[in-house]
From TrEMBL:
Belongs to the SorC transcriptional regulatory family. Keywords: DNA-binding, Transcription, Transcription regulation. Residues 14-44 form the RNA polymerase sigma-70 region domain. InterPro entries: NagB/RpiA_transferase-like, RNA_pol_sigma70_r4, RNA_pol_sigma_r3/r4-like, SorC_transcr_regulators, Sugar-bd_dom_put. This is Deoxyribonucleoside regulator. Residues 57-310 form the Sugar-binding domain. The lineage of its organism: Bacteria, Bacillati, Bacillota, Negativicutes, Selenomonadales.
Amino acid sequence: MDNNKERLSINIAKLYYESDYSQQQIAEKLNISRPTVSRLLQYAKDQKFVRINIVDPIEDNSSLEQMLISKYNLDDVKIAYTPLDTRDEITKSISAKAAEYLYAVTKDGDIIGVSWGLTIYNVALKLRSKSLKGVQIVQLKGGVSHSQSNTYAYEVVELFSESFNTVGRYLPLPLMFDSVQMKKLVENDRHIKRILELGRQANIAVFTVGTVKDDALLFRLGYIDEKDKRILKEDAVGDICSRFFNAEGELCNKELDNRTVGINLEELKNKEKRILVAGSQRKISAIKAALAGGFANILVTDQYTAHALIK
């Protein structure tokens, strides 16, 4: 059997049936003719790769998952197959895989702490409803922003709560305060204390990792001034829940960290399930550092990122 033809037909089928690309869009992306796309879609059907779901008989990520578990001392790894090594396609694939994983592992009485951002929002969109008792959803960090950039903080909690038939707990505060004193004053409010404590009690945490690139969401929200940006870029490689860390997984910029609202990295490490949902080449160094720091014990990623993490 021609493996190259088989692989190409499966990639095209996934783009067409799962990602809603038109045949013309696929042709342009893969630099082939539209009739070729049509023929390979038919070939995929003839070979029974396309049924209700797309069947991929070649790709087997189980050994790659085990390599990552062993290398980074993880409890579990889930690798989502994505047909293109692009940020959009990777986000779609890993979000669906993370939603599937959460459906499988969440049980009665779980407290799920959620971060925010585009990746986690996509996870929330793909969640299936599951009838459980006593599940609670809580926001792990401040979500109020006056920027034009959407954090999806409210939408994430709302969608998670709908899926698990519960009422979500929002953290109605800015992500960062101008001073430590002001942050401490607000956190002393008894209602805020309860939400923060529920976040600490959560046994499941779902989050992604950010970068320190110029277009990073945290930099676009306006909380971090130019001086702190320069300092972070010299040392940090990424953030989790807006807590920045270096390549060794050590906390960076304690002054900034002390002004940040929400769960800190040491508290995060106490969770039973710490689910990091992240992929793409731009995030490789941040993911490696997050795993080195022990902030996640479960990784959901794609095959391209997985291979880079092994190297």
